[in-house]
Amino acid sequence: MDRNDPAYRGQADYNEFLLRLYDPLVLGPISRYVWRAPAELGVDMYRRNIRPNHLDVGPGTGYFIDHAGLPAGSRVTILDPNPNVLRYVKRRLRNLDVTAVEADVLKPLPVAGPFESAGMNAVLHCLPGPLERKAVAVANVASVLAPEATFFGATVLGRSAKHTRMGRAFLTSFNRRGVFDNLDDTRDGIAEILRRSFREVTIETVGGLAVFAAKGPLASIASSRRPDASARKDEV
After folding, report:
1. If you ran DSSP here, which 8-state letter would residue 13 be given?
2. Per the confidence metrics, is the pTM higher than 0.85?
C-alpha cells in the first residue's frame, strides 16, 4: 500500500514480530482488560457465523478462523493490504484451502464471490474515518456475498463508549499514532452504515466494542463484479 494512502497507518505495524505477539498480548490482556471483551467472544462469533467459502477481511493472525471449527479443506479467502499478514495466516491455516488476496477493502474488491460468509473483525476502527468513508468498505464486502450470507465482526468504539480509564488511554494513544481512526465511531453510526448494505442488522455493545452481524446484502449492492485483472492473489 502507498505510504500516502489514508489507510496506510492502520495496517503498517503488522510485521512478523508484532504478529507473533498478537495472540498472547492483544487477544490476551488487552482484549480482556482494556476493551473488556475476551477473545472467547470472538471465537464464539466465528463459530456461529462462519461458513465454508468464507471471506475474511483483515484476518489478523488467523486465530479466529483457526478456532472456528471449519472442516479441513474448506475454502477461505483472506484479504489484506499487508503481505506480512497474508503470509502469516496462510502458514497457520494449512489445513484449509486458503486464497490470499493483497487488496484494500476501501477499494472495489478483486474477488468474484459469491461468498457464504464474511468476517471483518478489528478492522473498522483501523480504517480512516469518518464513518461515511468506512461505509464504502461495508458496501464493498456486501457486493461479493451470496444473497443469504452473513457479514459479521467487531470494532472498538470511539469516545461515545463507556471505556474504562485504561481503555480511554489506549484509545487516545492509538488514535494519536494513527493506528486507529475511530474517535467519532458510535454504535448507532456503525449500525447505520451496515443497514445501507444489508436487510437485517444486529449489533450489541460488549465492553468497549460493537459486535455486529448483518444478513442479506441488498440487491442494489449485491451486483456481480468481475475481479480486477491486476489483483495480487497468492503472491505472498
Report:
1. T
2. yes
Long-range contacts of 161-167 (CB under 8 A, 24+ apart): 161/187, 161/205, 161/208, 162/208, 163/208, 164/34, 164/36, 164/208, 166/33, 166/34, 167/34, 167/35, 167/36, 167/207, 167/208
**CATH fold for the domain made of 8-218:** Rossmann fold (3.40.50)
* C-alpha 147: how far from chain center: 20
Dump pLDDT digits (tens) for 87-111: 999 999 999 999 999 999 999 999 9
pLDDT bin (cut points 50, 70, 90) of residue 3 is low
Q: Which set of grid coordinates corresponds to residue 134?
A: 468506512
Asked if residue 201 lies in contact with residue 194, where contact means CB atoms within 8 angstroms, the answer is yes
- DSSP H or E run through 85: helix 83-92
8 Å CB contact between 65 and 46: yes
Neighbour count for residue 200 (Cβ, 10 Å): 11
Residue 213 has which C-alpha cell?
Answer: 452481524
pLDDT tens by residue, 138-184: 999 999 999 999 999 999 999 999 999 999 999 999 999 999 999 99
Confidence of residue 125 (pLDDT cuts 50, 70, 90): very high
Which H or E run includes 214?
strand 209-217
Spans of all domains in the chain = 8-218
User: Which amino acid makes up residue 45?
Assistant: M
